[in-house]
Amino acid sequence: MSGHTGDAGPVEVEPMPGYLDLITRASTVMLGAWRDCSPCGLELSKRTLLDNANITLTEITLFFFCAFLWTQVRRGLTESLFQPLAQWCRLLPKDAAKMPESAWKLVFYTMSWSYSTYLLFFTSYSFFHDPPSVFYNWKSGMSVPTDIAIAYLIQGSFYGHSIYATVYMDAWRKDSAVMVVHHIITLALISFSYAFRYHNVGILVLFLHDINDIQLEFTKLNIYLKTRGEGYHLLNDVLSNMGSVSFSITWFWFRLYWFPLKVLYATCVSSLQSVPNIPFYFFFNTLLLALLLMNIYWFLFIVVFVVKVLKVKEVNDVREYEDEEGNNAAAGLLKEPQAENHDDDDAGHHNSAQGKHVQNGINKKKHL
């Protein structure tokens, strides 16, 4: 396979590195870049920002308009479609409250990931097969292709909406605070990568992350549907188990294998080879590393999820286990005193009976 570097002609695609190669080469390159960056500081960052950031007032206005539009579309679909569908399916109350959120996210992520897949595999872009090509012919202020600009507008405005939605519209879970941080970092990556024209690598990052959201929401919907109408539905149970398995596998494969070895290697190592003085090198790589750390954090939830499934043989949202266990524990504490009181009453009746039996024996002896 070969890639293209504009006027330089075709070059052989560099093979994807391993974890050890990534760690050694990335650390070496980054330490060297840090030592060579003697003028680095606030003043240089400010000058670099002014010289290289390219974003217009029209684009900012479109971002806020589309973020507002996503919120209104979600509300409209929730009221006119998702909530009536939950009532028609006769979902349990706790599932009916969460079903619209999952349905909305499934619709969006299916659309966005399909578009990213189209860009990476059905157009002339070779970013997936040749990650270093994301920096070929990079120039400050270069124009963004319309198809990629559309993807950025869709994704950026959605994450702007998601920050609001996580706090005010979604069911609050034990990782919701981390989710807000994730949305902020993702929005920062999208906004700055667009402004500094790192849009090619941005499309690759979005493709590698959105697929897991599709599988997650698909699995959750089938969890809700398998107990609809106060019954048990085998098909939805099988689908939820299949979704959970594929979700666990692709999470590791896309976010913990391809993401560091394709994206981080390209941004940490290949970027300086193509553009020696690439702006905000450390800033973007710090954000990408933070994203990787959050992916590892959530992978711990997936491990807990697998353990729970193996133990209870049932698929549920692992982010809610602690709450459910806490409620069960609280219910148990309420029942235990009652049980103790019941045992005390039984013991009292037993002692009373023994007392009457002893007294009758005494009376009999008196008669004798």
From TrEMBL:
<feature type="domain" description="TLC">
    <location>
        <begin position="97"/>
        <end position="311"/>
    </location>
</feature>
<dbReference type="InterPro" id="IPR006634">
    <property type="entry name" value="TLC-dom"/>
</dbReference>
<comment type="pathway">
    <text>Sphingolipid metabolism.</text>
</comment>
<dbReference type="GO" id="GO:0046513">
    <property type="term" value="P:ceramide biosynthetic process"/>
</dbReference>
<dbReference type="GO" id="GO:0016020">
    <property type="term" value="C:membrane"/>
</dbReference>
<keyword id="KW-0472">Membrane</keyword>
<feature type="transmembrane region" description="Helical">
    <location>
        <begin position="176"/>
        <end position="196"/>
    </location>
</feature>
<feature type="region of interest" description="Disordered">
    <location>
        <begin position="333"/>
        <end position="368"/>
    </location>
</feature>
<dbReference type="InterPro" id="IPR016439">
    <property type="entry name" value="Lag1/Lac1-like"/>
</dbReference>
<keyword id="KW-1133">Transmembrane helix</keyword>
<protein>
    <recommendedName>
        <fullName>TLC domain-containing protein</fullName>
    </recommendedName>
</protein>
<comment type="pathway">
    <text>Lipid metabolism; sphingolipid metabolism.</text>
</comment>
<feature type="transmembrane region" description="Helical">
    <location>
        <begin position="106"/>
        <end position="128"/>
    </location>
</feature>
<dbReference type="GO" id="GO:0050291">
    <property type="term" value="F:sphingosine N-acyltransferase activity"/>
</dbReference>
<feature type="transmembrane region" description="Helical">
    <location>
        <begin position="288"/>
        <end position="310"/>
    </location>
</feature>
<keyword id="KW-0812">Transmembrane</keyword>
<dbReference type="Pfam" id="PF03798">
    <property type="entry name" value="TRAM_LAG1_CLN8"/>
</dbReference>
<feature type="transmembrane region" description="Helical">
    <location>
        <begin position="148"/>
        <end position="169"/>
    </location>
</feature>
<feature type="transmembrane region" description="Helical">
    <location>
        <begin position="53"/>
        <end position="71"/>
    </location>
</feature>
